[in-house]
Amino acid sequence: MTTDTHMASAELGDTIIKIDELNKWYGQFHVLKDINLDVKRGERIVICGPSGSGKSTLIRCINRLETHQEGSIVVDGIELTEDTKHINDIRREVGMVFQHFNLFPHLTVLENCTLAPIWVRKSPKREAEDIAMRYLERVKIPEQANKYPGQLSGGQQQRVAIARSLCMNPRVMLFDEPTSALDPEMIAEVLDVMVGLAEDGMTMLCVTHEMGFARKVANRVIFMDGGQIVEQNQPEEFFNNPQNDRTQLFLSQILQH
Amino acid sequence: MTERTRIPLHRDPKVRAILVQVLAAVVVGYGFYSLFQTTVDNLVARGIQTGTSFFDEVAPFQIGFTPFFDYTLGQSKYIDVFFVGIQNTILVAVLGIIAATLLGFFIGVIRLSPNWLVSRGALVYIEVFRNVPLLLQIMFWNFAIFLPTLPAPKNSIAMGAFYLNARGFHTPLPVIENTTGVAIWIALLTVLGIGLLMFARRAKVLFEETGQRLPVLWISLAVLIIGGYIFYLVSGSPLSFDEPVLGRFNFKGGGQLPLPLFSLWFALTLYTSAFIAENVRAGIQSVSHGQTEAAYALGLSRKNTVNLVTIPQALRVIIPPTISQYLNLTKNSSLAVAVGYEELVAVWAGITLNQTGQALVIIGMTVAVYECLSLLTSFVLNWYNKRIQLTER
Ligand SMILES: Nc1ncnc2c1ncn2[C@@H]1O[C@H](COP(=O)(O)OP(=O)(O)O)[C@@H](O)[C@H]1O
Ligand SMILES: [Mg+2]
């Protein structure tokens, strides 16, 4: 990579996610307000903001775990509508990692990883297992392949969850606070894997408050508050010279300890 | 140290526990013994010697429904009545368990439907059939619905060679005409079955190696039906059919499912399915929302998500309480007395007991049968349960 601690951001491709004038309500509650966001292929975006600001809702709209009422979301040229075929087409190209891992407890680690390739991509089982083992090696737990999720530590489970998503060979990865349910000593092992992914050029949208990670890998940091994108900038600028009062307040709060 | 560990015996918890248990056992044992003795004395006073010699006496009554058993009035003995009763109890229990499971799963699943009307309908179904006493339900279906609405035998509803009337459901029965022919047919069917098993294994290997999925179930079914029929012709059509024929009062010949069996089965099915539906609902709801979200996020369809993620996890919650519903259904089948279905309690603990007065032996044997059935059911299902529980951890 570059000599700088920050990764190169030169070789970004075309737009892969295009969000226009997105509005969403939960009943009366206006949770996302006029969101505009373009994500380029290979871009790594970190989203931060206070709890309840709509970060999860935003990234869950991208793979239609939540529906929106106004505006448009286009992923890899496909617009998200009611059409279930489009939804499934998009979901197989977009991986998601959850705060609470959401591994399938009744399946082994390997089966967790091969389930979607076999049933969605219709891959031969052997091939799916070979690919799964490659990704399990990449997240450094091939030796756990035949265990059940309940037998693993939180950090290991989250790495399996990342491998499980990667097995579908996604073009975009969404992370929703992947380290906030982890004990401190396990955060690093998960972040390491994510940094590795970023180095390989994966397009990533990551909700996290790990500012070290943001500084190291992000091309852009987005600050959300009250359902709006309040400020966005390159990490250096964002952290050293925040423009908005709310951003300053937020940063001072999370950087205090 | 040793001084302090010496406790007076009457304050030592271990000694006291043993003492209390011995005392309880003696009291209960004596209670049972005196009950038993009093009963035996009373029976003797009425001229009944408790024993099993009545087993071999000829039973002086007819049993109408003995599908797997030859029972002839004037020849069959009391002990035959016992076995006929067991067989009829098992028959209605098995039929009820199968139907209640299917119906219960269906109701439980639609109970969670996003469609308000459908889920409300399921809720009403569950509440009604769970809360109305079962005996009342059995009598309702038999006396208020089926008996008055079904026609008399001479106006039977005919469906080919099948007839439905207020006496029950009449079917043709296969009769073996040619034993060697049947043997050849069965042999050919066995070969066909083995062939299909090998085909299924090949299909599995093919799927694992290439990802190509064959419709194994449909192919097997088609081959089995068509091949089975061709083989039947090849082996010289070795069966004939005894068709029910309308006699003076009712149909003769063929097989008959009497109306009481049908009413009992119907009521047991509805009643038990309501409980199973609740188990199914609870089981499905016990699977966290995060599980389905993770499956959707991977691109799995709704159907695959339900089949591969939700149901396997829900089953672990559904099965244990469903085991006890199966046991309940078996025990509840003894309410058949109300509609005259000839199961164990009706013919053995009822008629036979009245005629012989052998209360101790008869009740003891009846209890033992239910006990065995319960143990057997729990054993089989616990084994299955353990197998699917194991996959967790
Ligand atoms: N299913 C829902 N129904 C109603 N309100 C919701 C729902 N999910 C989230 N919210 C509300 O929407 C707001 C944004 O939630 P979320 O996107 O989870 O915030 P964040 O991830 O930034 O903490 C919160 O105020 C939350 O209470
Ligand atoms: Mg959140």
Distance between the termini of chain B: 45 Å
Number of strands of chain B: 8
Instruction: Quickly count the helices of chain B.
Output: 12
CATH class category name of the domain at 78-133 and 259-388 in chain B: Mainly Alpha
Q: Structural class per helix/strand content of chain A? A: alpha/beta
Bound molecules: adenosine-5'-diphosphate, magnesium ion
Strand order of the largest sheet of chain B: 1-2-3-8
Trace the largest sheet of chain A across and list its strands. Answer: 6-7-8-3-9-10
Distance between the termini of chain A: 30 Å
Tally the beta strands of chain A: 10
- Radius of gyration from the alpha-carbon trace of chain A, in angstroms: 18 Å
Strand content of chain A: 15-25%
Average pLDDT level of chain A: 92
**Low-confidence stretches of chain A at least 5 residues in length (pLDDT < 50)?**
none
Assess the beta-strand content of chain B as a share of residues.
Answer: 5-15%
Oligomeric status: heterodimer
What would you call the shape of chain B? globular
Helix content of chain B: 55-70%
Q: How would you describe the overall organization of this protein?
A:
The complex is a heterodimer of chains A (257) and B (393). Chain A is an alpha/beta fold and 257 residues long. Helices cover 37% and strands 25% of the residues of chain A. Chain A has helices at residues 55-62, 84-93, 109-119, 125-138, 154-166, 184-199, 211-217, 235-240, 245-255, and strands spanning 15-26, 29-40, 44-48, 70-75, 78-79, 94-97, 172-176, 203-207, 220-225, 228-233. A six-stranded mixed beta sheet of chain A has the order 6-7-8-3-9-10, with helices on both faces. In chain A, strands 2-1-4-5 form a four-stranded antiparallel beta sheet, covered by helices on one side. Chain A is globular and about 55 Å long. Chain A starts with 14 loop residues before the first strand and ends with a helix. In chain A, 49% of the residues are buried. In chain B, the strands form three sheets. In chain B, strands 1-2-3-8 form a four-stranded antiparallel beta sheet. A two-stranded antiparallel ribbon of chain B has the order 4-5. Chain B has twelve helices and eight strands. The longest helix of chain B has 34 residues, at 78-111. By secondary structure, chain B is α+β, with helices and mostly antiparallel strands. Chain B has helices at residues 2-5, 13-45, 78-111, 116-131, 134-149, 179-210, 216-234, 259-286, 289-297, 302-332, 344-356, 359-390, and strands spanning 157-159, 162-165, 168-171, 173-176, 239-242, 245-246, 251-252, 255-258. Among the domains of chain B are: 12-45; 78-133 and 259-388, MetI-like fold (Orthogonal Bundle). In chain B, helix 8 (259-286) crosses helix 10 (302-332) and helix 9 (289-297) runs antiparallel to helix 10. Chain A binds chain B through residues 63, 65, 88, 91-92, 94-96, 98, 100, 102-107, 115-116, 118-120, 122-127, 148, 150-151, 161, 164-165, 168, and chain B through 207-211, 213, 288, 290-291, 293-301, 304, 308-309, 312-313, 316, 391-393. Magnesium ion binds at residues 55-56, 176-177 of chain A. Adenosine-5'-diphosphate (ADP) binds next to strand 2 and helix 1 of chain A.
